[in-house]
# Entry
Amino acid sequence: MTDRYGQDVLSTDWRAPKRGRSRPVEATIDLVVEEVQTGWCGAVVSVEKAGGMHVVHLEDRRGKTKAFPLGTGFLLEGKPVELTAPTAAAKAALAEQRQASSRTASGSVAVANAPARVALGSRILVEGRHDAELVEKVWGEDLRVEGVVVEMLDGVDDLSAVIRDFHPEPGRRLGILVDHLVPGTKETRIVEEARRAARSEHVLIVGHPYVDVWQSVRPERLGWTQWPVIPRGTSWKHGILAELGWPHARQADVAHGWKRILSTVRTYADLEPELLGRVEELIDFVTAPT
# Structure
C-alpha cells in the first residue's frame, strides 16, 4: 500500500542545516577556508590569542589579511567546519618542518645566525628605488650573507659614465639591471653603447622586458590574469593605479600604490621568471671567485 505521507520526518536529523553540521578542523597554516558571514576566502596565516579569545588570520589571493574569531562560521570545500586552535603536536610538527626546510624569500636555504660580513668591492646597480626595494624584499637576506650592496642608478641615460667612474677590475665587479631591455628601445641602444665603451669582463649588464619593475610581479597577486595595456600618452604607473581603482592623481599616490603592490610579494614565486633569472645571474656574477 502506498504511503501517502512519505517517511517519518521525525526519524531523521531534521534540524541539521542543508550543508550538514560543522565538524572540528584544526586551523593549520595554509588551510584555505571561507568565512560565511562576509564571504572572505583565504589561507590561514596565523592563530593567536587577543582580548581573551583566539582569532584566526586569513590571507586572500590579493595578499590582504583579515582576522576572525576562531570557532564556527567557516566553510571548507563547501562544508561547514569549526576551526580550532592547532594542538601542541601540530605546532611541534610545523616548527620541525619549518626548521628542516627553512628558506629565504628567494628560495635559498636560510643561514641561521650568520655573522655580519664586510661588503664586497663589487656592486649591483638597479634603475630606481622600486627596483631596489623589490630586490631587497626577495634577495636581501642572501645579499647580506654574501656581502653584496645594491645601489640605485636613477636612470640609465649616462650608463657609460657610471661604469667608467666605478673602475671595474678583478675583485670589483659591476652588475647592472636595466628595465625594458627589448630590441628597438632606447634602453637597448644605451646598453649596447655602454658595453662597447666598457669592454670589460668585470661588467655584466642584463635586463628584463617589462616597462617597469612593477610588471615583474605576477598579475595574479593583484587579482588579474595579465597586466593591462596602458594607452600611449598615458603615464604607465598612473594608468595601472587607475585600473586597480586606487588613487593615482599625485606622485604620493604612485609611491603608496607601489607599497601596496610590493606588499603582495612574499617570495620569489610571486615574481616572473624573466626578472628572477636576471637577478640570480647578477648575484652569481658579482660573487664569483676572482
